[in-house]
């Protein structure tokens, strides 16, 4: 009975992780296609991709592979199955959605549609990250690094995350990423959307496991 319950819990959490990763990837792709500025991390991987001559999705995989190696060295206890899935899957989904979006909005969407894309992108990233974290099967690689820094320095995680976003934005801009209106939305609104989504996800998982 316990083994079946454990398997059910694992499968359910993996489903939430997959939905969360796909949601966050769709949000990132919407940012990129809107070309009105990306959230800090997407701005960085966009610039990194341009510098390396690879897609934004491939640049995302490179970023998270590097941070995953760093996390293995500094605090491997934060790594779980979800961490690896996030690190190696989200970039592929970003490239997939980046390819598909023009079939829905056209190759040259109007400014109004681009603004809607930015707003939807913010919502999808926030909900996606919240659902991913609600599974509690490991942090995303960069979140793990930020939490490790906060733990080792005694600095509040909130301030570490703010500094991280500033550095990602600056580096993205220097590398040629798009920094504008969407960057502010991503920096200030993703967190407030993510937290209730994470809390809802945790409640949903608990309730499903009761049945």
Could you characterize what this model shows?
This protein starts with a helix and ends with a helix. It is mostly helical and 211 residues long. The protein contains 8 helices and no strands. It has one domain. The mean pLDDT is 89. The radius of gyration is 17 Å and the shape is globular.
Topology:
Blueprint: H1 2-34, H2 40-52, H3 56-74, H4 81-105, H5 111-134, H6 141-153, H7 157-175, H8 181-210
Helix pairs in contact: 1-4, 1-5, 1-8, 2-3, 2-7, 3-4, 3-6, 5-8, 6-7
Which key terms come to mind for this protein?
211 residues; mainly alpha; globular
Sum up the overall morphology in one term.
globular
Report the portion of residues in β strands: under 5%
The average pLDDT is 89
User: By helix and strand content, what is the structural category?
Assistant: mainly alpha
Q: Report how far the terminal alpha carbons are from each other.
A: 13 Å
Total of helices: 8
Radius of gyration: 17 Å
Query: Which range best describes the helical content: under 10%, 10-25%, 25-40%, 40-55%, 55-70% or over 70%?
Result: over 70%
């Amino acid at each position: 009975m316990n083994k079946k319950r454990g398997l059910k819990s694992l499968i359910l959490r993996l489903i939430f992780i997959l939905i969360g990763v796909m949601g966050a990837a769709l949000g990132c792709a919407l940012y990129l296609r809107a070309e009105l500025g990306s959230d800090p991390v997407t701005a960085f991987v966009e610039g990194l991709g341009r510098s390396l001559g690879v897609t934004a999705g491939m640049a995302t995989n490179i970023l998270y592979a590097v941070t995953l190696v760093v996390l293995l060295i500094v605090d491997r206890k934060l790594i779980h199955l979800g961490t690896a899935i996030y690190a190696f899957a989200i970039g592929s989904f970003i490239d997939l959605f980046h390819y598909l979006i023009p079939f829905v909005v056209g190759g040259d969407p109007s400014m109004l549609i681009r603004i809607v894309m930015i707003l939807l992108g913010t919502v999808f990233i926030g909900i996606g990250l919240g659902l991913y974290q609600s599974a509690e099967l490991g942090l995303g690689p960069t979140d793990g690094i930020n939490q490790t820094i906060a733990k080792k320095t005694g600095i509040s995680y909130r301030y570490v995350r703010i500094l991280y976003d500033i550095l990602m934005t600056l580096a993205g801009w220097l590398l040629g990423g798009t920094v504008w209106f969407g960057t502010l939305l991503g920096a200030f609104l993703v967190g407030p959307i993510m937290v209730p989504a994470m809390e809802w996800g945790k409640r949903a998982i608990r309730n499903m496991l009761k049945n």
